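TA notes, week 10

Several of you asked for a full example with nothing omitted. So below is the full record: structure tokens for the whole chain, then the designed sequence directly under it. When grading your own attempts, check the secondary structure regions first.
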């Protein structure tokens, strides 16, 4: 599996297995870095700044993975931005403590939870469960054809 292609290129198509692998890798990186930042620096200004930098650093690889999967479904890769941008904004608001505490969310916190839940369900169904377009499409050849 070519991880550089999966995380840095917006061209072509990937199948569900590669999308899942990319999502799991990005999720593990995000969780590990998030826990390290919170344990070492806390949730103050510097911890929030580092959490912001991690979110921004992981945005493009997330976009690349999701864009290629949308393209496998014969949809423009830019559709991934419809979900990733609101999720990025929600994570930044949370990193800066504007959504309340984990125990007591404010109104903005609940909106962020609902946005992330909606995007997560949409991406789970659209990218993680539904099959890609069989055969070639405008974004390239069928990624499963190379496996058979």
């Amino acid at each position: 599996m070519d991880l550089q292609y999966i995380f840095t290129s917006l061209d072509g198509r990937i199948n569900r297995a590669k999308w899942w692998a990319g999502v799991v890798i990005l999720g593990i990186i995000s969780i590990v870095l998030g826990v390290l930042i919170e344990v070492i620096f806390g949730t103050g200004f510097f911890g929030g700044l580092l959490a912001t930098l991690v979110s921004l650093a992981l945005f493009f690889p997330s976009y690349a993975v999701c864009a290629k999967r949308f393209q496998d479904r014969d949809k423009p890769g830019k559709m991934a931005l419809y979900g990733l941008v609101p999720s990025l904004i929600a994570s930044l608001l949370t990193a800066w403590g504007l959504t309340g505490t984990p125990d007591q969310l404010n109104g903005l916190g609940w909106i962020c939870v609902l946005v992330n839940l909606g995007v997560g369900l949409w991406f789970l169904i659209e990218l993680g469960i539904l099959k890609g377009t069989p055969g070639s499409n405008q974004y390239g050849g069928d990624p499963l054809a190379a496996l058979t």
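The helical segments are 3-8, 16-41, 45-72, 79-95, 107-129. Use that as a sanity check on your answer.
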